[in-house]
Amino acid sequence: MQDRRHYYRTVYTHQVKCRLGPNLFAYVEMSDISCGGCKIRTTRRDIQIGQSLVLKFPGLEGLAGKVSWKLGTDLGVKFEQPLHPAVARHHFPRSLDQYGLETFALS
């Protein structure tokens, strides 16, 4: 299977608040993040591919995105606006890319 990622991802396990619609919120478990999106896990079965949502991370404004894939309780979220690598490095743990560089953006 071809990996279609445009950004490196880093492990980031944290519970975040997720807005699924007007006055509809849930807490989801995030397991990784990149500048372009993240992977979340939820017990909600009613979230569909293509659904818009907003994730609220500590210290950041809500990040709007859409569900791009679903596998059981795991969901892939593509952010509407990618995070700038400097913002991602500031707010999330850094990881080493394949060249040993601390980065979030693919070159």
Give the helix/strand layout.
Layout: E1 9-21, E2 24-34, E3 37-41, E4 52-56, E5 63-71, E6 74-79, H1 85-91
Antiparallel strand pairs: 1-2, 1-4, 2-3, 3-6, 4-5, 5-6
Which strand-content bin applies to the residues?
over 45%
CATH level 3 topology: Thrombin, subunit H
Give the count of helical stretches. 1
How many domains, in number, for the residues? 1
| Radius of gyration over all CA atoms, rounded | 14 Å
Report the average pLDDT across residues.
Answer: 80
Order of helices and strands: EEEEEEH
SS-based structural class?
mainly beta
CATH architecture classification name = Beta Barrel
Low-confidence stretches: none
Q: What overall geometry do the principal axes of the alpha carbons give?
A: globular
Distance from first to last alpha carbon: 22 Å
What do you see in this structure?
- By secondary structure, this protein is mainly beta.
- It has a single domain, classed as Thrombin, subunit H.
- The chain is built from 1 helix and 6 strands; from the N terminus they run E-E-E-E-E-E-H.
- The chain has one helix at residues 85-91, and strands at residues 9-21, 24-34, 37-41, 52-56, 63-71, 74-79.
- Strands 1-2-3-6-5-4 form a 6-stranded antiparallel barrel.
- The longest helix is centred in the last third of the chain and has 7 residues, at 85-91.
- The radius of gyration is 14 Å and the shape is globular.
- The protein starts with 8 loop residues before the first strand and ends in a 16-residue tail after the last helix.
